[in-house]
Amino acid sequence: MTLKEKITTLCNAQGVSGDEFAVAEKAAELLAPYVDRVEVDKFGNVSGYKSCGKPGAKKLMLDAHIDEIGFLVTGITEEGFLRFMGIGVDQRMLPGGTLSVMTKTGNILGVVGALPPHLQAPGDNAKSLPIENLYVDVGMPVEEVRKKVRIGDYMTFTSQAFDLLGDQICGKSFDDRACFCCLLHALELLKDKELNVDLIIIGTTKEEIGGHGASYRTYCDRPDLAVAIDVCHARTDDNLPGDRVSDLGGGPVITVGTNSVPRYARKLMEIARAKNIPYQVSAAPSRTGTNAWSMQIIEEGCPTLVASLPLKYMHSPVEVIKMSDVENVGRLLAELAMDIDGRWSL
Amino acid sequence: MSDLNRVTEILKLLCEKDGVAGYEDEVREAIADIARPHADEMTVDALGNLLVFKKGRNTPKKPIALSAHMDEVGFMVSKITEGGMIKFVTVGSIDPRVMIGRKLKVGPQKVPGVISLKAIHLTTPAERKIAPPAGSLYIDIGATSRREAEKYAQIGDPCYFDSPYEEFGDGRIKSKAIDDRVGCAVMAALIEEELEYDTWFVFATNEEIGGSRGAKVAANRLGAPTFLTIEGTTAADMPGVPVHAQSTTQGLGCAVSIYDKTSVYSRSLIKSMTQKADEEGIKWQYRRSANGSTDAGAFHLAATGAVGMGIATPTRYIHCACNVAYKPDIGEVLKMARLFIKEADKNV
Fold first, then answer.
1. How far apart are CA A308 and CA A64, in angstroms?
2. In whole angstroms, what is the distance from residue A288 CA to residue A283 CA?
3. In CATH, what number does B74-161 get?
4. Helices (H), ranges, chain A
5. CATH label, B3-72+176-342, candidates 3.10.180.10, 3.40.190.10, 3.40.630.10, 3.30.565.10
6. B324 close contact with A: CB closer than 8 A
7. Are residues A229 and A87 in the same domain?
8. Is A194 an annotated catalytic residue?
9. Does residue A134 sit in helix, strand or coil?
10. How far is A70 from chain B (nearest CA, A)?
């Protein structure tokens, strides 16, 4: 399976924060060939352990989250349409789109309704529709809907990943499953390489609602350094001058700040320069919006680092990434693991 | 195969084609392929309309014409930015709010592209209340320069919603172009049948851009004194819309128009046809809205005027990527159209 196929497989799978088990299963399959053992815990976190076989080796944890943004059914109208709430979604992405309703008996297609122009009042189309006024049409009479759909059922975008020009791909939940595939790429590069550090690769749950899965794994595995690999905003045509964005195709974005410890962040930049890996730098004085935020304060504390994959249109059904960035993030992490060889240590 | 199954089979085939006004070729060719073995005469006129004549068991006292439009709403490339992003105008009316987050097919090679917005994280709550106008949106095909984008999209090239035909729920169909491939599919299925009377079928171009210009020249040519238009019309039977404003309701059968922005339909024709429909157990409902317009506007004003009827499949969410129709309603529309042909001499 190529790297792109891995991304497609993992990102087309559906698992909103809180119920990632189906995704975890796929992630575990992809991870297994590269590690000594794989575990899926009760949260749905996937962990792969690759020991260097050296006594007293330090533990380097590489994290990407496998949950995705999505929706919860909050009600069924008397006409049989679903009311819903979003988890991290811009309500302006929804009208006229499709969602997959994850029912107890399988996924069904739903269409987010939109009143046609013929029936609108002048000026209506300049206002966005609040998510609480939107509804999902599953094309069934109300009695059928009540039998099939339960309050609390999850819904996800239906997008299947596809190619754009220039080695870019588009789809849903690249945030952050594409980054899990960066980890797989790093492991591919580390195959048969001698290491001086034990690797713990985690695909974590519930990042979009607070990084709970990563906290749990950090608590259990007690790494000496935890690197959160997440996506960051790549520049788009509608950015304002003040938007903090990076360049798609510009390589990994290395964060520096309290949540991405400068000592390690600078080391990572040094490695990138030495190995001719393009990189970009992002300053983050406080929280990074990644799992590093929750991992850093587990028990006595854990040094954390944030490395990011540039991505356009985050939290939309049409997120866009560039394959060269995926490869370069993977390369950088592989080089980091290989660099911990005694010249410096965690 | 039941006749409704045949209609939906044709509908699927036609919904998988792309054609905004002026670019109906694919759709026309697909319809022509279906009609050819059954047609007694086929013409493509100067505006791209496909006119199919099919002999019936009898010749009516006066000619009759059925009409549906082939074009769908979509987009046209209007400009390409230095950075390779594609600005667009719409072909037909589309609410900008249904464009965001959608996948498109762009240009003659139909390369994939998307319309989106910057991430929610970079917006303020106030910004999220405003729907961006179409002029501020752009299509991203992954090009990073104008030169690269121009290999795939020239100014004037059409773009389409990429939204496959899918059946879901309890007999529902979802596609970008049910308006009005459903009318085309009903007519194509009728062409395959033995008909009671000789009938002209007009597969018209250029409906969605206003003015029904395709239908106008077809009507001028045929001069049929009695006509029937078959549409996919608004069904606003959704939460929050009061019953009197729903226009049509799915499950209540074939929609029958009384009047709209360009036509007043024949009261006597509506009366005789609906009475007959009741006798035959065809489910029908009035279209309870005067908004919108159809090609009937062109047909009934052609030459010295004609009398006509407008029927339609109630269709939710027209003019976006996901039109939704209900199969049993399509079956009723088919029956009503067949009845119209059968009653040709009584309707004169």
1. 10
2. 9
3. 2.40.30.40
4. 3-12, 21-31, 142-148, 174-190, 212-221, 262-274, 292-295, 323-339
5. 3.40.630.10
6. yes
7. no
8. no
9. coil
10. 14
At residue A139, does pLDDT exceed 70? yes
Q: Is residue A33 part of a domain?
A: yes
- Are B118 and A163 within 8 A, CB to CB? no
- Nearest chain B CA: its distance from A68 CA (Å): 15
A 125-164 residues inside an 8 A Cβ radius of B: 125-129, 133, 135, 137-141, 144, 159, 162-164
Distance of alpha carbon B175 from alpha carbon B181, whole angstroms: 10
Statement to judge: residues A50 and A196 lie in one domain: yes
- The three-point CA angle A294-A300-A306 to 5° equals 40
Closest residue by Cα to residue B135 from A241, A126, A312 = A126
Q: Is A278 on the interface with B (CB under 8 A)?
A: no
| Rounded CA separation B48/B68 (Å) | 13
- The residue out of A127, A157, A187 marking a domain boundary is A157
Q: Give the torsion through C-alpha atoms of B258, B297, B308, B302, to 10 deg.
A: 150
Q: Are residues A31 and A176 part of one domain?
A: yes
Examine residue A35 and state whether it is found in any structural domain, yes or no.
Answer: yes
Range of the domain at A335: 3-68+172-339
CATH of the domain at A104: 2.40.30.40
DSSP codes, B48-105 = --EEEEE--SB--SS-EEEEEE--B-EEEEEEE-TTS-EEEEEES---GGGTTTEEEE
Substitution target from B106, B110, B116 for chain A, most A beta carbons within 10 A: B116
Q: Indicate if the pLDDT at residue A226 is higher than 70.
A: yes
ipTM, 2 decimals?
Answer: 0.94
Q: For residue B348, what pLDDT band results from cuts at 50, 70 and 90?
A: low
pLDDT, tens digit (0-9, with 9 covering 90-100), for B254-292:
999 999 999 999 999 999 999 999 999 999 999 999 888
For residue range B156-197, list pLDDT tens digits in order.
Answer: 999 999 999 999 999 999 999 999 999 999 999 999 999 999
Same domain, A328 and A225: yes
Structural tokens at position B340: 């119209």
Kindly calculate the radius of gyration of chain B based on its CA atoms and give it in whole angstroms: 21
How far is A324 from A256, CA to CA, in rounded Å? 23
Per-residue pLDDT, B216: 95
Q: Is A120 in the same domain as A264?
A: no
Q: Which of A65, A81, A82, A64 is nearest to A73 (CA)?
A: A82
User: Is the domain of A263 the same as that of A325?
Assistant: yes
> With an 8 Å Cβ cutoff, are B169 and A139 in contact?
yes
A236: phi then psi, degrees, rounded to nearest 5: -130, 170
**Tokens matching residue A169:** 């791909």
A116 has a pLDDT exceeding 80 = no
Contacts of A91 in chain B (CB under 8 A): 128
